[in-house]
Specification:
By secondary structure, the chain is an alpha+beta fold. It has five helices and five strands.
Amino acid sequence: MQYGTGKHKVFLQRPLTIDVSALKELDNTELFTLAEICTHGQLSASEHRVIFRTTLNQSKMALEHLRVLGLLDQVEPGNRREAYQLKLIASSMIIDHLIAANYLY
């Protein structure tokens, strides 16, 4: 298949499939973390600590790990204290994966 432009013509390419392999390798806690963020929109490290009964440092590391994987964005500091939200471009794929894996209903 070709793509590009020519005189009076536009050639399109099929969209590339999104690689969801990173989601398939996440553990239960990471998937439940994503599900909590899907449900509530945002999650701070202190909220994560309470929900998952862990230390604040472990919660910060868990959320930062998901951010480094490209699944989360950190909310602007002025809007909320060190909170994380789904990366907009990946949100539909994350939600679909969580529903298929029965982490969201």
